[in-house]
């Protein structure tokens, strides 16, 4: 037993990390719901409200992340390896940042048309965020990691599904859209949507690393 | 007291790092001045000279960075944590690389028009580089970190200001520019300008990490 | 002598890493050959076959990488520093991923024309991959690192050469291509080609780090 492990058995784990992770996971689901609504509404007033909602969520997320990092510096025994907490937190925060990026681009570019596949994409993102939420709320029971592993598996499946959808959608955009400026808009929004799904995979990787060391 | 700390008290800190950081900070200011001038001159001869100036600055920067890394391997007691020096050096070098990227793109793309906001952007970059210079010259007095912290605060303010400017400028480009190829040029130059400001924030983060551990 | 070094002298190095690296290096050469052929064939049937070949190579590469990482967790004495093996493996895998990216983009974008400079680029990539292969097969004789260092030097030369070619080619694309959508396609394929060469430089950096610590 290393000295470190020895101390970890003596000193109670700092439990205040769990509520912070859970708040972050809740914000992720909220952001993904708002994102879905953006792609379903043509009403500019409603859209403007949704852009603001997502921006507010991003600000709240930044606060929680700062809180987690501050506690990481002070806490004697965080529940998991410091570096792994850092990685998990960063990837959770990034999901929200990237959802905000998509919203910002729609606001700035005002695309004339949104390919219908984009809605399917936001549904996949939402499903991935649901799995993130499920997995994060299971972190308290990390010693029985089955539910987390199941959620991670689903995140990976969603990433593969999204990859296929990306390929067919980008091919379609180049086939159908003959207005170069509209093509630029659609292409970049699609790439930003894809980056969210990649980031959901990063969350899954971070979770699995924590399980490997802790469970 | 750890063994490491014990040795650090016995062995004098390797002071030759400071002049190297200061040279790098000086080059950053020079590069940002040359960049401003590129955006103020339409004269292709003058511009060509400025592209070369920036390329030369980039080469000098690479040499200094190599020097810092070589000394990091050899030096018994660098003034700060090795990893933090690495991060600071990399971010300082990247500022210059990114300024060179902007210059190269203008040279390669020959945009017909440069939105006036781009000049405002280069002014913000210049102000950020001035703050970097100020902060780096204060590293010798890291035990009294107030001036560095003030400079870091200003870098962050500039990053936020630049973020707002980016959003309004990209919206304007999509509103005004109807020539798709010209839009591509402007969009990418703007994105490259923005990445400089993001990197100035990274410098500020690296500086704050050093203060946290040293001051 | 540290305890770690002491054990390393007692326990035989885990030699099964070498064949795995060598398989990976072999796949890299295969992928770069297939990539060259894509740019030489207009026949869509032949091209489709090549896209599939590269995709299959990427899948095989993923398996080997997983294998290396699994062994890294289990092996008591890997032949080099764990982190360095991780870095080398990741950069080797990325070369193949990026070659696949180029193939995918050609498949999705169906560019009407391919600038002749792109073929020169794929030849440079192929030469770089040959040097990777040479260097990786020399890892068994790392104590005499001359041949690896020579190969690394050539990788760097290729990267510089490719950098010049990139600059002149992107300028030409903006001069010649007046169809914005075709320009977007060509520009992005070129950027993806360039990222392969950047990654070859990363392989060279990873190899040199291993030499520095081991030879």
Overview of this protein structure:
The structure is a homotrimer of 215-residue chains. Chain A is an all-alpha fold and 215 residues long. Chain A is 83% helix and 0% strand. Chain A contains 7 helices and no strands. Chain A has helices at residues 3-10, 17-40, 44-74, 82-109, 117-137, 146-176, 180-214. In chain A, helix 2 packs antiparallel against helix 5. The longest helix of chain A is centred in the last third of the chain and has 35 residues, at 180-214. Chain A is elongated, with a radius of gyration of 19 Å. In chain A, 35% of the residues are buried. The interface between A and C is small, with 10 and 9 residues.
- Quote the average pLDDT of chain A: 93
Largest interface: A-B, 9 and 10 residues
Record field, number of beta strands of chain A: 0
| H/E element sequence of chain A | HHHHHHH
Spans of chain A of at least 5 consecutive residues whose pLDDT stays below 50 are none
Largest beta-sheet characterization of chain A: none
Please tag this protein with its features.
mainly alpha; 83% helix; 7 helices; homotrimer; 215 residues
In brief, what are we looking at here?
Three copies of one chain form a homotrimer. Chain A contains seven helices and no strands. By secondary structure, chain A is mainly alpha-helical.
Describe the secondary-structure layout.
3 copies of one chain form a homotrimer.
Chain A: H1 3-10, H2 17-40, H3 44-74, H4 82-109, H5 117-137, H6 146-176, H7 180-214
């Amino acid at each position: 037993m290393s000295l470190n492990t020895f101390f970890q058995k003596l000193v109670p784990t700092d439990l205040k990390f769990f509520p912070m992770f859970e708040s972050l996971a809740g914000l992720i689901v909220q952001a993904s719901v708002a994102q879905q609504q953006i792609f379903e509404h043509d009403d500019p007033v409603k859209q403007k409200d949704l852009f603001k909602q997502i921006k507010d969520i991003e600000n709240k997320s930044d606060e929680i992340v700062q809180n987690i990092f501050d506690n990481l510096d002070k806490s004697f025994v965080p529940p998991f390896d410091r570096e792994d907490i850092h990685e998990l937190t960063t990837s959770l925060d990034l999901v929200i940042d990237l959802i905000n990026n998509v919203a910002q681009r729609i606001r700035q570019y005002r695309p004339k048309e949104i390919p219908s596949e984009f809605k399917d994409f936001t549904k996949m993102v939402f499903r991935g965020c649901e799995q993130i939420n499920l997995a994060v709320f299971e972190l308290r029971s990390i010693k029985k990691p089955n539910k987390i592993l199941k959620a991670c598996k689903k995140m990976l499946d969603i990433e593969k599904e999204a990859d296929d959808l990306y390929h067919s959608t980008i091919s379609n955009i180049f086939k159908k859209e003959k207005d170069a400026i509209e093509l630029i808009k659609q292409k970049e929004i699609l790439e930003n949507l894809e980056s969210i799904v990649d980031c959901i995979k990063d969350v899954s990787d971070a979770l699995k690393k924590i399980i490997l060391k802790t469970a």
